[in-house]
Design brief:
Helices cover 9% and strands 52% of the residues. The protein is mostly beta strands and 229 residues long. Strands 6-5-4-3-2-1-12-11-10-9-8-7 form a 12-stranded antiparallel sheet. Strand 8 and strand 9 (163-174) form a beta hairpin.
Amino acid sequence: MLQKLLFSLGLIVIALGLTHCNRIKTPVPAYTETIYPLETGQSRIYLVIDTTFTTQDTIVDKFYMKEVIGEKETDLLGREVFRLETFRSDFDRGTDYLFVADRVGTVYKDGEFAERMEENQRFQILKFPVYPGIKWNGNLYNGLGEQDYKYQSIDTVIEVNGVTYDPAVFVLESLPSDTSSFIKYRLAYQLYAPELGKVMKYDLTKVRDLANNRFNPDKSYTRIEMLVE
């Protein structure tokens, strides 16, 4: 069942890349300015499917994650950023959540970029203004190597957990063709909806860098986040 889900989500990239909405729209639709809302007290809950590997097994961790935008604080660059507090609740509890503190980061937005700081890694997750095809280096500051992010579509329709988001902005982080080799395969993207922010995240990474091109479970993973409420 999980493999079917991963395959279906992966196909979203192909579908979004090949279909276009027949709409009359301005060069920069006004709704794109609201795809990363930041206000103290905002919260969102996601269903997370986190898959890791061992040499003998596949380990699936399913849980609910709550993100809360906290108060403003000043970062090391002297900027006013928002504190991002993350909590998790066991999947078996369903929507009878019992959230416990998980980690703390920061989020930031100015007229050019939206950023997210997680575990001391600084990602430029969005670029403004939002145009189809625009690319930028999302890993510019975090030392993980250059990675082109791209607006694959700024006017698409996506259904997540039975809810249709129309329009949605599709941010492609990596395509298999961009990193295709015998060593690493990665497919990653995120989707954002006006006034709501991130509604979905998908990141599949498989690495074969052991002797005789063998699969490396320590460097391979899949993470899916889907907005619940």
